[in-house]
Amino acid sequence: MASERVLVVDDEEDILELVGYNLEKEGYRVERAASGEEALRAARSRPPDLIVLDLMLPGMGGLEACKILKHGEATSHVPIVMLTAKGEEADIVTGLELGADDYVTKPFSPRVLVARIRAVLRRRAAEPPDEATPLNVGELSIHPGRHEVLVRGESVELTATEFRILHFLARRPGWVFTRYQIVDGAQGPDAMVTDRSVDVHMVSLRRKLGPLSDQIETVRGVGYRLKEP
User: Fold this and answer.
1) pTM for this one?
2) What are the tens digits of pLDDT across the range 65-124?
3) Would you give the distance in Å from CA 151 to the centre of its chain?
4) For residues 170 and 137, is the Cβ–Cβ distance under 8 A?
5) Is 191's pLDDT higher than 60?
6) What residues have CB less than 8 Å from 18, skipping those under 6 apart?
7) Do 76 and 70 contact (CB within 8 A), yes or no?
8) How distant, in Å, are the alpha carbons of 9, 39, 118, 123 from that of 45?
9) What is the DSSP letter of 211?
10) How much is the average pLDDT of 45-72?
């Protein structure tokens, strides 16, 4: 089952409920907004994993909201699936050029929409991390290019393997990963991580993170996750 958070933006209550119901049935966590302004507030305060954005909204339209979201530091990475009425070809092109990841035309099949959302999230998860962009999870900051980790502004020294594990978890805060997934995601030239050694690395990581040690959570019977701030 999915566990990603999806922000659904539409001014029609029946569509909000239809989309929300079908996403929740698939295991997604859903937040709803009825306007572009409301969507911006929600996305900025807690960036979701994906936004379903209607283009025809009262006040601020969907294209303007898309532009602002894609230029915002906290929301530029969030994939957007546009909902658009048939015949709005120019708006579709504009939306895609602004950075939207996909579009679904109205009237739409909820199954098709869910499949499109799943595909966008799958593609995004497979993308290599941007080495120039630091990851900030609460008071934890990870800079891949500099191989630097800051805990409340203070630098901590990690081994190459510990860094890759922490970076892998930080790319998806709140997601639970099995030991085998962590091994696959944290492999590097030195290949010093195995499924049997993951627990040892986690103990060391928690010790080095000091006051933020509880950010790494053990999910009994499954694996580990980095807690969402």
Assistant:
1) 0.59
2) 999 998 887 888 899 999 988 666 788 888 888 888 888 988 899 999 999 999 888 877
3) 22
4) yes
5) no
6) 110
7) yes
8) 15, 10, 24, 25
9) G
10) 92
Gap between the Cα atoms of 155 and 141, Å rounded? 9
The per-residue DSSP string of 10-70 comes to -S-HHHHHHHHHHHHHTT-EEEEESSHHHHHHHHHHS--SEEEEES--SSS-HHHHHHHHH
| Exposure on the CB side of residue 228, measured as CA atoms within 13 A | 11
Residue 115 is inside which H or E element, if any?
helix 110-126
| Chain mean pLDDT for the chain | 87
Residues whose CB is less than 8 angstroms from the CB of residue 32 and which lie 6 or more positions away in sequence, other chains included: 7, 8, 9, 16, 20
What pLDDT shows up at residue 190? 47
| pLDDT in the model for residue 28 | 94
Domain-wise residue ranges, the chain: 5-126, 135-226
The CATH number of 5-126 is which of 3.40.50.2300, 3.30.1300.10, 3.40.630.10, 3.40.50.11540? Answer: 3.40.50.2300
- Please tell me the distance from the alpha carbon of residue 71 to that of residue 39, in angstroms, as a whole number: 15
Alpha-carbon span 85 to 58, nearest angstrom: 15
C-beta of residue 180 within 8 angstroms of C-beta of residue 195 = yes
Amino acid, res. 16: L
Instruction: Please determine, looking at this structure, whether the domain spanning 135-226 carries the CATH number 3.40.190.10.
Output: no
200 vs 121: CA distance, rounded Å: 31
DSSP-derived pairing of the beta strands 140-143 and 216-219 = unpaired
Instruction: Determine the pLDDT at residue 189.
Output: 47
